Amino acid sequence: MDDMIIAVVAIFFTIGIPVLAMATHFALRPLVREVRDLAEALGPMKRDRERIARLTERIEQLEGEHRERGELLDQLAEAELFRRQLEERTGGETPRDLT
Question: What pLDDT shows up at residue 49?
């Protein structure tokens, strides 16, 4: 009886475990490949998200600069209007001409 158990255990370790290992390897191989493909696909997506974030920051900065320039142009237009009104009231003479 003991000899029979030893023989079964020996056969299991020499044949059973390598067969189980190979079966597990071939069964999990597609899963590992899918995980690797998923990791490769997510890598560029992360770079794209970072690039989009940088572009968004640049657009916001450009919009802020555009707003500032628009405000400056509005101030210049108001100053020019004020200068014209002042010239009309003083008969064409500007304060610089009066000195």
Answer: 83
